[in-house]
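Lecture notes, continued. The same structure-token format from the folding unit now serves as the input rather than the output. Read the line below as a description of shape only.
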């Protein structure tokens, strides 16, 4: 009897554990969507699959992001071998723009109270105006893309398209009524309970979720994903552009310094890598390069500061125009732009001042720099005759209108070729 009870208890608890769920991996996306985010989500899916997790939860709070990165994320979600739960949270969070695509692409979509979703109209992406044919193509493409996602996940296709074409938004309650999300959950525990028992389709087959009581493991970014996120920040890309300019210019004005040139060269490659991940306006980049050229020309051309003023204006406008995006998180901070403009102006004014000073400085080498120097006669020099003098350890042929004896100090009047005109000191 005793052994029978033990066996029954064992079977009972085993059955409970089989329904309690194992482990769920959770990652947090908080901010703009970029290459770093896409890499983070892809690695999160890979990690969760390797751990044999019941599902991957993506806690989402984003104003939007780059369309190319969004496409990569959606592909990862649709091709995921494990169930994906996108949870727009905490309260006050939003799934804006790119967040709409990501939320709809999940196997299960949920929102916390006090959140919203929508406004996916691709305004200004890539620099096209609303009336341009190119922008119409971008909008149509985005609308078709979001419709296909909604159809795949059995969500409201009409609302999804309106979110792209008309920038409509919805609260969590409206999204639930419109079949944009599956349920509302105030916290992760309630999310797991609500998802428990739901049927989902993955690339590895159909699955019934067992998430109630599952252990939640938070998976953070690795160093590579952190680096991608940092490099895809427009402010960081801008700083590397400045380091490129400063480093190369220092090396040009001080040949052989090596270190500034190395810093400038490395910064150039990093800046190029960062810019290829961002919506760059080529006109802005061109204005920055033009400003450098104007500053350099100022050294050689007397413009009474006009070229420098033009360089400052060109640099400022180029910096403002450099990143072509309507999103605040994909733009360069005005504080950084103003500071950089002031520092760049001071930097080139210093270079220009040093350059002009060097041009006006008396030459101290060759025949042009020897006039006024003091030497010693090493032979007699008769009036109107020739002799030899030593100046700075060098022996020169000299002529003079004075009678000069061997050993007398002489002052150099001028030089003609390799012959000096001298006079007797004293």
């Amino acid at each position: 009897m005793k052994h029978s009870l033990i066996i029954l208890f064992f079977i009972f608890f085993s059955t409970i554990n089989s329904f309690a769920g194992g482990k769920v991996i959770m990652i947090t996306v908080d901010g703009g969507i970029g290459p770093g985010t896409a890499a983070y989500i892809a690695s999160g899916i890979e990690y969760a699959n390797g751990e044999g997790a019941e599902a991957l939860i993506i806690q989402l709070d984003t104003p939007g992001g780059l369309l190319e990165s969004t496409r990569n994320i959606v592909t990862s979600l649709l091709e995921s071998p494990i169930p994906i739960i996108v949870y727009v949270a905490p309260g006050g969070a939003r799934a804006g723009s790119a967040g709409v695509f990501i939320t709809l692409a999940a196997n299960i979509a949920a929102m916390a109270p006090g959140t919203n979703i929508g406004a996916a109209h691709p305004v200004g992406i890539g620099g096209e105006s609303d009336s341009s044919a190119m922008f119409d193509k971008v909008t149509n493409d985005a609308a078709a893309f979001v419709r296909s996602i909604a159809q795949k996940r059995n969500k409201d296709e009409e609302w999804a398209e309106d979110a792209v074409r008309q920038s409509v938004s919805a609260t969590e309650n409206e999204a639930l009524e419109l079949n944009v999300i599956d349920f509302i959950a105030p916290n992760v525990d309630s999310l797991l309970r609500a998802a428990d028992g739901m049927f989902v389709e993955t690339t590895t087959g159909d699955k019934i979720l067992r998430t109630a009581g599952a252990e939640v493991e938070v998976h953070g970014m690795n160093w590579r994903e952190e680096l991608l996120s940092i490099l895809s920040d427009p402010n960081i890309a801008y700083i590397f552009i400045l380091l490129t300019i400063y480093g190369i210019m220092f090396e040009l004005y001080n040949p052989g310094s090596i270190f500034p040139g190395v810093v400038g060269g490395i910064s150039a490659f990093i800046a190029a890598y960062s810019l290829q991940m961002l919506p760059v306006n080529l006109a802005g980049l061109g204005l920055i390069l033009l400003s450098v050229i104007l500053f350099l020309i100022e050294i050689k051309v007397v413009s009474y500061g006009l070229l420098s003023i033009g360089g400052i204006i060109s640099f400022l406008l180029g910096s403002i125009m450099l990143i072509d995006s309507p999103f605040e998180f994909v733009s360069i901070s005005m504080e950084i732009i103003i500071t950089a403009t002031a520092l760049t102006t001071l930097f080139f004014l210093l270079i220009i001042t040093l350059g002009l000073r060097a041009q006006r400085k008396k030459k101290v080498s060759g025949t042009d720099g020897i006039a006024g120097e003091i030497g010693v006669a090493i032979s007699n020099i008769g009036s109107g005759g020739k002799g030899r003098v030593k100046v700075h350890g060098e022996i020169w042929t000299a002529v003079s209108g004075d009678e000069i004896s061997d050993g007398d100090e002489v002052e150099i009047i001028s030089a003609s070729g390799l012959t000096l005109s001298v006079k007797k000191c004293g």
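Point for the exam: The first strand starts at residue 23 and ends at 30.
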